[in-house]
Automatic annotation (TrEMBL):
Chain ranges of the Prepilin type IV endopeptidase peptidase domain: 101-195
Membrane topology: Multi-pass membrane protein
Residues that span the membrane, as ranges: 6-25, 79-109, 115-134, 141-162, 168-195, 207-224
Keywords of the record: Cell membrane, Hydrolase, Membrane, Transmembrane, Transmembrane helix
Molecular functions (GO terms): aspartic-type endopeptidase activity
Domain Prepilin peptidase A24 N-terminal stretches: 8-88
Name of the featured protein: Bacterial peptidase A24, N-terminal domain protein
């Protein structure tokens, strides 16, 4: 029963994080207007349309009123966050609250980058509990961290990586160390290749990379032992 509670809480928090990201990017407040509306026809959505994951599935991935295609990003992030919360949260504790904060932050960062190609650096603060919650795997030496940071900084200066991506990866370096950060980077690059291949469109110019980084981080956390 507790697992189901954490799954539902994860989906609700992801839904709120996605909504807050889109509203802030539009210059609105996260809590105003009170009820969400369709981005295409501007009709106010009924409560059943707002149920995480289910609202999307019941509508068949299209707006109930204007039949415009809805973004798969929302139900996917809600489902993945619910699954991660279910796997990681063990009890009603401060640790579980910290894990939910980290997961919600990952969705918020991924959403702003996915929809607007930027992140709010202040939101990265939500990732700092990582260092208190998990035991990072890998060798306990620090010099590869400096090497990895130098490489990432070079890529950023050469415009192969965004500044937001560098900030995200630097927070991972500070909280989890170089080994998990290198794993996240590798997995995110593979994911980006798969997404590119599946979409059938070659990418030109800057493309959002935080969604891949956030997903790879979330997957890694599921396999990382708690402190
Ligand atoms: Zn509509």
């Amino acid at each position: 029963m507790l697992k189901l509670y954490f799954f539902l809480l994860g989906t609700i928090l992801a839904s709120f994080a996605g909504l807050a990201a889109v509203r802030l990017g539009n210059g609105q407040r996260p809590w105003s207007p009170g009820r969400s509306y369709c981005d295409h026809c501007r009709r106010q959505l009924a409560p059943w349309q707002l149920i995480p994951v289910c609202g999307y599935l019941i509508q068949g991935g299209r707006c109930h009123y204007c039949h415009a295609r809805l973004s798969i990003f929302y139900p996917l992030s809600e489902l993945l966050t619910g699954g991660a919360a279910l796997a990681l949260c063990q009890s009603l504790s401060l640790d579980s609250a910290g894990i939910l904060l980290v997961l919600t932050t990952l969705v918020f960062l991924a959403s702003t980058d996915h929809f607007y190609q930027f992140i709010y650096p202040v939101a990265l603060a939500g990732l700092f509990p990582l260092g208190l919650l998990f035991t990072p795997p890998g060798p306990k030496v620090s010099w590869p961290a400096a090497l990895l940071f130098s490489l990432l900084l070079s890529f950023t200066v050469l415009h192969s990586l965004g500044w937001g991506d560098l900030e995200f990866l630097t927070v991972l370096l500070l909280t989890l160390g170089w080994y998990p950060t290198a794993l996240v980077l590798l997995a995110a690059c593979l994911l980006a290749l798969v997404v590119n291949f599946a979409s059938g469109r070659p990418r030109h110019g800057p493309a959002p990379f935080i969604p891949e980084l956030a997903l790879a981080t979330g997957v890694l956390l599921v396999f990382m032992p708690p402190i």
